[in-house]
Amino acid sequence: MPTPRSLEEISAEWLTRGLRRAGVTQAARVTGFRATRIGEGLGFLSSVFRLLLDYDRSEADAPRSVVAKLEPADTSMRDFEGELHAFQREIRFYEEIAPGAPIRLARLYFAESEPPDYAMVMEDLSFARPGDQVAGLHASQVKRGAYTIGCLQGRYWGDEALRSFDWMPASNGVQGDFDAKWDSFVEHFGYTVDPAGLELGARLLGRADWLEAEIGRRPRTIVHSDLRADNLMLGDEGTPEEILILDWQIAVRGLGAFDVARLMGGSELPSERRGHQLEVLHAWWEALGAEGVRDYPFEDATRDLRLGALATLWYPVHFHTGVLESAGRSRALLERMFRRLFDSAVELDAGAVLPG
Hints:
By secondary structure, this protein is α+β, with helices and mostly antiparallel strands. The chain is built from 13 helices and ten strands.
C-alpha cells in the first residue's frame, strides 16, 4: 500500500493497517474520517492534518482522532525537506529518544519510513492550544519553554548515548551559503531588519567556519533547532503538558543554548524580551542543573547564548530563497520572525563574541 503524498491519498485502509501494525488497535477497522488541515501558514517542511476517525466497532484504546503528517506539497519545500532528511530524522527521534525523554511528547502511533515517501500518524494534542508565531509569546511562556527544553537537553548533556544517534547530524549545514545568499536576503527581506541587525549580519560574512568551529567546541546535547511558538502547544499551567514541543524534523546534536536563542529571539514579544534575556537563559540553566549538569558556569552559558543567537541568523538567510513568493500568514510569520531574531541578537550584544 503506497505511502500517501497528499490528503486525497490517505485512506481508511491505510490508517487501519498502520494502527493495527503498531498494536494501537486490535479488531477495530477505520471506516472513514473527517479531515481538517492544521498549521496552515505555520510550517514549511510538512503538511499536517487532524483526522476524526470512524470505526466499525468500539475499542477502548482506539484513538478518536489522530494527526497525520505528510511531506510538503510545495516542490521547493519538498526539496528542502529532502536536503535535511527531515522526516527520517523526526521518525527516529520519536522511535528512539521520545520514549525515554523526561518531558511530555506526542505519541507516535506509526510511521512510513521507507523512501521515497514518508508519513507519520501521531497523537492528537488538540486539548492544548497552539502557540502563535505571529502573535508571539509572553515572557512567562518563553521561560517555561526554555526550562522544558533544558530538561531534555540536561538528560543528554555530553552523554555518550549521543554517539549512537548517528542519524542526527551535528549541524543542519545552513551556514555554508550565508555569504552567497546575504545580498539576496537584504534585497528581498532587508526591510524587515533594523540597520543594527543588518550591520551585525554583515559582520558574519566570511565567519561561518569560525562560528561553526566555536560551536563545535562547546558541550553537545539534543537541539530542536526550530523551537518557536508555532511548534509549541500550550496546556494547563503547572502540569507536564504546560509546554508541549512539536516538530523535531531538524533536530541536531549541538549547542543547547541555540534553542534558547531561537525561542526567545524568534517568538517572544519584543516589549517583554528587552532587558530580560538572561532571565530566560537562567531558567534553562536551572533545568540543566536539575538534570544533573555540573561544571557549566552561567558565564559559559551566557557566551553560548550569544554564539547561538549568531547562529540563528543563518536560518533566515539560507531558507529565504524558498519563500520569496510567500503571502498571507506565511509572509507575516517570516517578517516577524526575521525581525525578532536580528533584534534579539543585537540586544544580546552577540557580536561581542566575534573575533576582531
